[in-house]
Design goal:
The chain has a single domain, classed as P1 Nuclease (Orthogonal Bundle), CATH 1.10.575.10. It is globular, with a radius of gyration of 20 Å. By secondary structure, it is mostly helical. Strand 1 and strand 2 form a beta hairpin. The protein starts with a helix and ends in a 12-residue tail after the last helix. It has a two-stranded antiparallel ribbon. The protein has 13 helices and 2 strands, in the order H-H-H-H-H-H-E-E-H-H-H-H-H-H-H. GO terms for molecular function: endonuclease activity; hydrolase activity, acting on ester bonds; metal ion binding; nucleic acid binding. Belongs to the nuclease type I family. It comes from Athelia psychrophila. Pfam families: S1-P1_nuclease.
C-alpha cells in the first residue's frame, strides 16, 4: 500500500504510511472538472428501496443510476489494483488514484445513507440537529461524528498504555476518539466479534473475476456480507417513521429524481431553510441517543476500515492485545 501511495516514511518512530490522509481525497477533488463524473460512484441505491416504508436491497428493479454506482466503482478499482506490478507508483498515476478511490469507496459502503434508495441517499430530507437545519445524509456523513469529538471524555486525551496503538496515532484532533473506539469497542463490546469481521468471505459466484480474480471476489463477498445488515438499519431507525407522518410528511419526494452532483448546492446544509412545515429534530435520546449508546457509528467506521484491509489482501490479520 505504501508503494502504491508513494508515501513511505523512513522515520522509525512512525508507521511507514497512513491511509487517513488519503481517505477523503476523492471528496477534495470531486468538484474538479475531470472528476465530476465520479459523483454517482459514491452511491448504490436500489430502485425498489424506500425506507422506512420499504427496504429492498438490491431489489428486482436494479440500481437508480444503473451501472455507474458504488458497487461497480469498487469492482473497477479492484480490477486495476489486481494488475499492480509491485513497483512504486507516482502520485496521480492510475494505480495510485485507484487505491485512493477504493479506500474511500469502502468507507462509503459502510455509510448507510449511500445505499438508501430515497431522496438521493437522504440528501433531499431536511431535518434539524442540535437546533440547526441540515439533511439526513449530512447528519450521518459528519455531524454525528463531530458531536462525538465535542463531547468525548477528557480521559482519552491521555495515551493508552498500549504502545502498538499509540505508535499509529497521528497527533490529530480525532486521536482521543480513536483511543475510545479501540478501548471500548474493539477491546471491549466487540471483542468476541472483530476477528470474524476480518475473515475473507467465500468467493461470490455471481461475480466471476477476470485474471487471477482473488481480490475481486473478496470485494464482492464483503459487499454481500456487510451491506444487507446495514440496509436493515435504514428501515429500522435511520429513516425515522415520523418523516412520513404529519406534520413532517412529504416535503421530500420532489428531490428523489435528482442526481448525485456532490458539488451541487442542493446538498449543502445552508440550503436547508426553515419553512411553514417544521423539520424533525433528531438530536433526541430516541434517535441520536440510541446511535451513541449502541456505538452504531463507531462500529460502521471500524468495519469500513477492516474492509479496506481485506481489499488489500490482509484478511484475518489484526493484532490487538487480548483480542
Amino acid at each position: 500500500l505504501c508503494a502504491i501511495l508513494n508515501w513511505t516514511s523512513t522515520n522509525p518512530n512512525e508507521p511507514e504510511c497512513h491511509l487517513a490522509p488519503i481517505a477523503a481525497w476523492t471528496d477534495r477533488v470531486c468538484c474538479l472538472p475531470q472528476y465530476r463524473w465520479t459523483g454517482s460512484l459514491h452511491y448504490v441505491e436500489g430502485k425498489d428501496d424506500y425506507p422506512s416504508e420499504t427496504c429492498a436491497f438490491p431489489g428486482n428493479s436494479g440500481w437508480v443510476n444503473g451501472p455507474v454506482n458504488l458497487l461497480n466503482g469498487i469492482v473497477n478499482t479492484t480490477r486495476i489494483l489486481e494488475e499492480w506490478d509491485g513497483r512504486a507508483e507516482e502520485v496521480g498515476s492510475v494505480m495510485n488514484e485507484a487505491l485512493k478511490f477504493l479506500v474511500h469507496f469502502y468507507g462509503d459502503l459502510h455509510m448507510p445513507l449511500r445505499a438508501a434508495g430515497r431522496a438521493r441517499g437522504g440528501n433531499g430530507i431536511k431535518v434539524m440537529f442540535d437546533g440547526r437545519h441540515t439533511n439526513l445524509h449530512s447528519l450521518w456523513d459528519g455531524l454525528l461524528i463531530a458531536q462525538r469529538l465535542r463531547t468525548l471524555s477528557s480521559n482519552y486525551t491521555l495515551p493508552l498504555l498500549i504502545p502498538e496503538i499509540e505508535f499509529n496515532l497521528r497527533g490529530a484532533i480525532y486521536d482521543p476518539y480513536v483511543r475510545r473506539v479501540m478501548w471500548e469497542g474493539i477491546m471491549g463490546r466487540w471483542k468476541g466479534e472483530v476477528q470474524q469481521w476480518l475473515l475473507c468471505p467465500s468467493p461470490e459466484p455471481a461475480f466471476p473475476a477476470a485474471g487471477n480474480g482473488g481480490m475481486l471476489q473478496t470485494v464482492m463477498g464483503m459487499f454481500r456480507r456487510n451491506r444487507n445488515p446495514i440496509n436493515v438499519m435504514n428501515c429500522d431507525f435511520i429513516f425515522p417513521k415520523a418523516l412520513d407522518e404529519r406534520p413532517y410528511r412529504a416535503r421530500y419526494h420532489d428531490a428523489d429524481h435528482l442526481g448525485h452532483d456532490r458539488c451541487s448546492k442542493t446538498e449543502h446544509e445552508d440550503e436547508a431553510r426553515a419553512a411553514d412545515v417544521p423539520y424533525l429534530e433528531l438530536d433526541t435520546p430516541e434517535y441520536a441517543g440510541r446511535i451513541k449508546d449502541e456505538f452504531v457509528i463507531e462500529k460502521l467506521i471500524v468495519q469500513g476500515g477492516f474492509g479496506s484491509r481485506g481489499a488489500g489482501g490482509f484478511c484475518g490479520q489484526l493484532w490487538v492485545p487480548g483480542v
